[in-house]
Amino acid sequence: MPQVVTEKLPKVQASVAAALEDGVTLPKLNLGPFLAKVDGAKEQLAADIRRIQETLGFYSIVNHGIPRALIDAAEEQSRLAFMLPEEEKQRSLKEGHMQGYWPPNSVSNTRPGYEGERKKRSTLSGWAFLRDREDDDPKVLQNLRHRSQNKWPNPELLPDFRPTMNRYHQAMVELGLKLVQVYALALGLPEDYFDQDFVDAEWYSRCNYYSPQEAADEMVMGTTAHSDHSFLTLLPISSVPGLQVRTPDDNWIDVAFEPDAIIVNTGEWLNHRTNGRFLATPHRVLQPTSERISMPVFIDPNDDSVNEPVPGTIAAGETRKFPPMRWHEFFVNYIDGYSKA
């Protein structure tokens, strides 16, 4: 097993510390120097991420290398998919596995800690895509839960959907895997510490559609409060407001639109791997008054990865907070805790 790194990281940037102290906006990190391999940039990014993940769990990134044109093209293809006739969407309806079309009000948070959300109606509809698989994929042949083939929209009606979304997914996953290495440094570990967990990574993406609703109703939400399942989540910020992030003192931060920015947050898997040190922060989406589309990409590990706490995250006298579990079991349990069907 790799040894723990002992080198001290630099001080947190003043802008990051100020944002965390104010608690009204998300910290913003510039990935430009890191991606350009400027000396010290990776270590500075790791220091900033460590502080953010221990106190809030959400931040935005700019100069991340994902072309704006690609994000816009993927959003337009997503919009067109949800504008298909209902009978076409029903042909892609999720059945048994999560891949496919999720109609409005098909998600409810039944997991412990969110009892207050169960009375609220979540209006979003979605289209779930996991890592693309061929007919002869062993997990497809085994009919392993949530490891089936994707249900793409009819290519005769949307010929550009699949190639566009494949390019979008590839770009986002490549960025996410670069950040995984920074997270290892943030935990005082060699940057390749998590590499073995992502050799056969099981990433997941959703196209989400929020229909507009003029009249306010406190019992209607775009998406009810929840925390993500992932190691990391990447999400281009929508120009239509609605996303809110809950702070540790139970206040809600409204996430403002910033052109070209991408939201990053920790999911529950990394929360487990750090024995609760890196937060899996609850968030929600208010019901919008105009059409809203979001396209999160969840960076998930190999199915055989286990949630063993990494070195340095269990202090003397402490015990692990989460029972041992493989990724695939964890993922199935998580998805089943949010699905009404």
What does this structure look like?
The structure is a single chain. By secondary structure, this protein is an alpha+beta fold. It has one domain (67-336): Jelly Rolls (Sandwich), CATH 2.60.120.330. Helix content is 28%, strand content 17%. The protein is built from nine helices and 15 strands. The strands form three sheets. Strands 1, 2, 3, 5, 6, 9, 12, 14 and 15 form a nine-stranded mixed beta sheet that branches. A four-stranded antiparallel beta sheet has the order 8-13-10-11, with no helix packed on it. It has a two-stranded parallel ribbon with strand order 4-7. A hairpin with a 5-residue loop joins β10 and β11. It is globular and about 60 Å long. It starts with 13 loop residues before the first helix and ends in a 5-residue tail after the last helix. The model is unreliable at 1-6 (pLDDT under 50).
What topology emerges from the helices and strands here?
Elements: H1 14-22, E1 28-30, H2 32-35, H3 41-55, E2 58-62, H4 68-82, H5 86-91, E3 100-102, E4 121-122, E5 125-130, H6 138-141, H7 161-186, E6 204-210, E7 220-221, E8 223-226, E9 232-236, E10 243-246, E11 252-254, E12 262-266, H8 268-273, E13 283-285, E14 292-294, E15 297-299, H9 327-336
Helix pairs in contact: 3-7, 4-7
